[in-house]
Structure formats: C-alpha cells, structure tokens
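Entry 12.
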Amino acid sequence: MIAPTTTSMKNPVGFLRLMMMFVLCVVSEVINGEEEIRCIPEEREALLQFKAAIVDHNGMLSSWTTPNYCQWEGIRCSNLTSHIISLDLHGDGDERYMSGEIHKSLMELSQLQYLNLSHNYFPDTHIPEFLASLKNLKYLDLSSSQFEGKIPTQLGSLSHLKYLNLADNYLEGAIPYQFGNLSQLQHLELSDNLLEGNIPSQLGNLSQLHQLYLQHLYNLKISDGGQWLSNLISLTHLYLDSLSNLNHSHIWSQVIAKLPQLRELSLVDCSLSDHFILSSKHSKFNFSTSLSVFDLSGNTFTSAVIFQWVSNITSNLVHLDLSDNNLTEDLPSILGNLSRGCVRHSLQELDLSANYITGTLSDISVFSSLKSLFLGANELSGRIPEGVKLPSTLEDLLVWSNSLEGGIPKSFGNACFLLSLDISNNSLSDELPMIISHLSGCARYSLQVLYLHDNQINGTLPDFSTFTSLGKLYLHNNKLNGEIHKDIQFPPKLEDLYIYSNSLKGVLTDYHFANMSMLQNLDLSDNSLGLAFTQNWVPHFQLLFINLRSCQLGPTFPMWLQTQNKFVDIDISNATISGIIPEWFWAKLSLQRVMTMNISYNSLQGLSLLKVIDLSSNHFSEEIPTEIEKLAGLISLNLSRNNLIGKIPSNIGNMTSLESLDLSRNRLVGSIPLSLAQIYGLGVLDLSQNHLSGKIPTSTQLQSFHQSSYEDNLDLCGPPLEKLCIDGKPTQNPNANVYKDEYPFFNNEFFISMGIGFALSFWTVIGSILFKRSWQRSYFNFLNNLEDNVHVKIAIFVRVINRDKD
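Predicted 3D structure (tokens):
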C-alpha cells in the first residue's frame, strides 16, 4: 500500500515556486528596509561641515567617521524617512565640551526637532540666526555655553517649539516680543544673563507655558504691573528672582494669586518688605491648594506678618525659604504664628537662616511632616531646653553660628530619622561623652553628619562604634582633653574625621581604626597625640587628605603611608620623624597628583642618596628651593608642567650625577646658570616653554642638545639656537627657526606618508562598502522606535524633575 503524499510532494515545481516567492519577499523587505535607513547625502555633508568648524579636544565627535551617521554619537534619525530629527551634543563640565563655530550647514537638517548644545564653550559667539530656519524644531537648549549678544528675534518664528532654554550665558538687550508667537511653548528659561528692559507683555500669549524661569536678570523689569501673567493659566513654575521693580506695584501679586495650577513660586532678592504685604489688597488665592514651594529669601521682611500672610495663602506648602531677611522676632513666636494654619501639617522644609532671630530652640513637634529645619547664622542663645521635642520625621537640623550654650538634650537621640545635626560655631560647653550619650538613642543608627566644631566642648573622645551610619565627624577647635582610651573605636562608615586644635593626649593604634574602610580625610593635628601602628599594618582605607602635624609619628618614617595611593595633600611636619626618607615615598609623589606636601621640622636625612624625583604635572607654584642643589646623588629631576616661578638655582651644577633634567612648561625667569654647563653626564635636557632669557652658556654639553630643548622662551640666544647674541643679548631681528611641534620626529615627510597610508586604507574600506551589498547592510542597519513627540515630552519632564530635586 502506497502512503499518501502531501501536496508539495505531488507538485514539487509548485513547492519550489512557493519557496522562491518567500525568498523574494524576504529579500524585498531587506532591500526596502535598507533604503529606509540609508543616509541622506546632504545631511551627512552638513554634519561633516559642522564637525569641521568645531574644536573638539575631548573627542565628543570621535564617532563621526563611519558612513551611517544615524549611528554617530548624539544623532537620532527617523526610522521612516532617515532624516536627522535629534542632535544632542551637550557638554558635561570641564572634562567634556566643544568650542569653535556653529556652522550654518545645520540649516540642511530640515526635519530636526531636537537640538541641544548646552554646557559647551562658545565665547565671542552670537546665537546663530539661521537656527530659526529649522521650522520643525520642538526642543532648543543653548544654556551654559558662553553665548553673547542679543537674542535673535527670528527664534520667535519657531511655531512648533515646546522647550527653549538660553540660561546662563552673556546675552544682552531685551527679551524679543516675538517670543509671544511661540504658541506651543511649555518651558522658557532665560535666567542668568545680562538682559534688560521690560518683560514683553506678549509672553501672556503663551497659554500652554508650564515653566517660566527669569532669575538673576538684575536689569529686567516687569511690565504693565504683570497683567500679562493672568493669561498663563497652565503655569506651574514661576521664578522671578532679582526683578528690580516688583516692590513698586501690587498688581502682579494679585494676578499671580489667580493662577490655578501654580506649584512653585520664587521671588528671591526682590526687595519685598513688610510694608508691601500690609499695603496689599486682600486677594483670593486660586493656588491655595496647589502652591507647595515658596522662596522669599534675600528680601527685607522683619516681622511675624510674613508668617501670617504665608499661612493664609496656601494650605499645602512643603518648602518655605525666608533665609537672608531681617527677621527679628524670637523663634517661639515665629513658629507659633506659622503653626496656626494648615501649613503645620504639610511643611517639610523651613529655612530661616541668616536672620536676626532671637530666643532659643523651642518645641517644633507641632510641624508633623517637617524634615529639614535651617536656623544657622541667627542670634539664638541660652541652653536648649531639656524637654524640647522634635518631629519624628526630622532629618536635618542645622543651628550653626548662634550662641547656644550647654549641651544637647536627650530628646535629640529619639529622632530616629535624623541624618544631619550641625550645632557648630556656638558656645556648647558640656563634656563630649555626655553629648554623645544623649544622641545614643535610635538617632545613632541614622545619623550621617555630626558637626560640633568651634565650640567649647571638653572631655575626651568617647566610643563611636555604635554610630553605624556616621560619615562626617567634625570636632575640631574645641577644648577636648584627656587621654584617649585604648578600647574606643571610630564609626565604620566614617569618611571625614577632624579633631584638630584640641588638647587630646594618648596614643592611637591600628585598633582604633580597625573597623574603618571608607576614611578619606584625616586631621589630628595640633594635639598631643601619638600614632603607634604595627610595622606591617595595612589600613582598609585610602586617604586623600592627611594632616598629622605635631603628632608623634617617629622615630622612623611611618611605613603605613606606603599603603596610601591616593593622597593629594599631606602634612607630617613637626612629627618627631628622623632617619632617611624611604625611596617609596618619593615614588608616590611622582605617581600621584600631590598638591601640598609638608615634612618640615623633623630630623630627616639621607636626601643625598635620592636618585629620582618626578613631581611633574602638579600645581607647584613657588620657586625651586635652593636646597635641591645638595642632592648630589640625584640622577633624574622632572619638575615639568607646573607653575614654578623665579630663577633656576644658580648652583644647580653641584648636582654632578644628574643625567636627566626637565624644567619645561613652567614660568621660570632669568638666565640659564653657568654651572649647568658643568654637568658633563647630562643626556636629557628640556627647558622649553618658560620665560628664560640671555645667552645659553657655552659648553660642548649644552650646545649638543636640539633646539627644541630651549624653544618657546622669552629671549634666549646663542647656539644651538639660530638667534645670535651681541654682548650676551639677542639681536633685534633674529632669524630663528621656531619649531611648533613638540617633537622633531613629526616632520613633513612623516605627515605625507601618514596621509598616503590613510587614503589607501580609507578607500579600501569605502570601496568594499560601495560594491559589496552585505557590507552595505551591516553599515546601514539602524532601528529606532521612539516617537518624536514623546522624546520631547520626556526631555521636558526630566528637566522639571531634576529642578524639583534641586
């Protein structure tokens, strides 16, 4: 019996035809997909012209070499049309930025919707007017890039723009009234510029505006009493810091009161006073349930009237800043006035620092949601009452620079969420062990920062090992005294330990530091402490800052420093150290970016045995010490790339063993010492890029070096330079051959050969791409599923969230 056959087996030709159609469909899809992501030549050329005009020392455009520009850094293309729709080349601090010129070739990017060139360096550059030709632009950020001149009025024609940030530049002149045409704008930021004149009332046309930032524009004024603000019904963030005429009219405050969605209002440094509030008409505040952040710092309020006013205008206030005013009430009265409204339940952060508030710290537990209270730089005095209560939610209590006395009440130790406590620069006088015991409730598990420095606290150091989260402990400039007990330990997460300028005695051993693995900054100076670590002790931490001045570290050089590989500042002066400085110490100075080193007032010796000193690429800015001439055994000295000043030591020739000397890239002046010609073994010399002058001393040795060893100085002459000398001075019209390259190896022939090699390699690769379809697919395969409008909305949302966090 014959088994039944399938249709394909009965008709093999039909099966093959079906398979062929499937393959053709797949190939067609691949080809069509390739066409969709194929680069547009005009746009690629526009990007290359833009790159050619940019100075890119940090390699931000280093990926702009491959054929597919959609894969270049900062570029985003449409998956449907292959047009460039996003160009994000924002800088990132001093380590990553561009400069140069913004080339007009960007006009070719006709479908561009997102352009971010913020945090770059474009001094002496105006904002290009041609940016207004990018009609599809929705997001434009040119902030923090050193732009100057006037804002182009043409930007007002970008009808699709939703986000515009020109803040933190040197822009001057008036705000263009044409900005009132940006009907879709949601975010406008012009802060920190040199703008002047009236704010154009046409901004009232921006009915979709959510955020308006006009901060620190000291010559800017609000026009028409601010009536135009009434149309901004979508406004949630309004920052008008430093506007010069807000105190001349009450209209703007009545207008703002009608904004229904306002969440953040900042009126910093606007010369507002009690009189302004008292003379204002009573208004119904439409934002009474929406306003959560209110910043009135830097004004001239003096009395409790401001607190009564604030309590009446909003019921959901979260952040209130009245710092740097002239408030003179006592603290209990201020808190009493503020707690009468609903604010006492909603307030999370209250800043009253830098005023003239009197009294002492009183009960603040009525503010049931309070997380941060800032009372620094006031006139609080007396003891903190023992029964004072803190909110259970409190995280930060800063009462620095007052005149508080005594100690800390036990109730502070029950603040289970307390993170930062700063009572520095007061007149606390209790014993430290008692203060710490009062903090040893649940607060010892949460506390991360404890600042008690600059008081009159006495007693000795207690055990801190139970403060398991403490990262910063500042106890310096007190009256601590007595012996440090051998069994105490410091917190395991401590990063900063400052106990200098006290009268502590005793010996610290490796046991005291045994649990510490995160310590970075250590200052025990100006006590009567000794450090006695076992010979092979290896700390679990790496220090950045070390100050052990006047501690007893000796008699031998502290070997544990050999384990420290990151320090940039070290002071072990007057530390009873004697003997020879080990070679590993000098090696560390050459490997690390040490900025300050002090080993003075010890009994060190043996420097004549030192062979190599390399302190290059640091920030030394003094004269070269003449004592260096005594290092007769030194073979190599490298002090290049610093800011050294003064003359080269005149008796440097006493360093007869010297084989390599590099003093380049400093600010040394004067002539080259004659004694330098007496170092006959000198094989490497670089004195370039200083301010040296006069005749190069005559000797077979000094004339044997290349001209580059002396180039880029103020006025050197004589062989090996071609600049001649007359009476030891350069001629007036020297015929000097200046080498602009740092190394003579890079001559013209080198660059020609490099160019030929590059061309051959380049066209080998490009030829393969042009004629081999598989290579084309691998280069042009790019997929992007993000929708354009969503991208812009996310960018705006992230910007607002970051500001809210700040």
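Annotation: Residues 1-10, 12-36, 733-753, 760-788 have pLDDT under 50 and may be disordered. The radius of gyration is 35 Å.
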